[in-house]
Amino acid sequence: MTYTTFSVTIADHIAHIELNRPDELNTMVPAFWRELPEAVQKIDREAAARVIVISSTGKHFSAGMDLAVFTNGGLQHDLELGRKHERMRHMVTELQNTFTALENCRIPVLAAIQGGCIGGAVDMTTACDCRYITEEGFFTVYETKIGMTADVGTLQRLPKLIPEGLARELAYTGRRMYAEEAKACGLVNQVFSDQQTMLNEVMNIAKEIAGNSPLAVSGCKEMINYTRDHSTADSLRYMSIWQTGMFQPETDMMETFSAKMEKREPAFADLAEIGPAIKE
User: Fold this and answer.
1) Buried/exposed 238-252: b ≥16 CB within 10 Å, e otherwise
2) For the whole model, what pTM was predicted?
3) What pathway is it annotated to (predicted)?
4) 210: which of 2, 50, 126, 248 fits an S-S bond (Cβ 3.0–4.6 Å)?
C-alpha cells in the first residue's frame, strides 16, 4: 500500500500508519483526507491486521488541516448561494467521515503523539481507541484561534473522553493542554519521556492486543462504542443479542484453554475478510 501523506507497514498482525511529511508539520492536505479512510478501510476489509498504530515523524504529530482543503474545495466556486452552501455541507461531511472510519473499523486504533496535536489532529486522535503522548506533547483546539468552529469531530468526541466543562474550556479558549494535564484528565493513557520510547511501548501494547482473539477484541470495541452513545439498558440488550451470535466457545475459548495446557501461545484465526454485499 503506497500513499503520499503517510506510509503503511504491516507486521505481526499490527498495521503501522506513519505520517511522513515532517517538513510541513504533517499538515492534512487534500490527499490525506482521501488516503486515510482508504488505508484504514482496506486494512479492515482485508483483515490485514488486528490493531492499527498511528504515529508521526518530525517535531510535531500534526499541525492539523491544511488551508488548501478549503481553497481547493467548495468555498471558491461561483455558485448560487444555496448550492454553494449545500456543497460546503457535503465537503464537511466527507472530512468527518475520514475520522469516523477509525471508529467504524473492527480493530482498535492506537495514536502515538509527539509534540503538537493541533486542530484537525485532535479530531483524528479523539476518534482513536487509545492515545499516548510524549512529555512535551500538547493538544489544542486551534480552530477557535483562527475564527472557526472545529467541525470534524473534536466537539462531538472530546466531551465523552474528558469532563465536559474542561472540554468546553479547551474549545472556547484554544489553549494548549500539555501531556501532564491530558494524563490527569484521562485524555491519554500514558506519558513517555521521548518518541522512540513511546513508540516501542505502544507497539508492545499493540502486540498484546494482537495476541488476543480478534473476534473478542472486535466485540469489545463494538460494545464500548455502542455504550458511549446509548443507555445502559439499551447497551445490555445489544450485548445479549451480540453474544448470541458471536459467542462461539468451541473455537477461540477452547484454543485459549488448549494453549494454556500445552504451555504455548494461542493461535487465533483472523477476522473474516469483508467486501461489498453484492459482487459482480
Assistant:
1) eeeeeeeeeeeeeeb
2) 0.93
3) Lipid metabolism; fatty acid beta-oxidation
4) 50
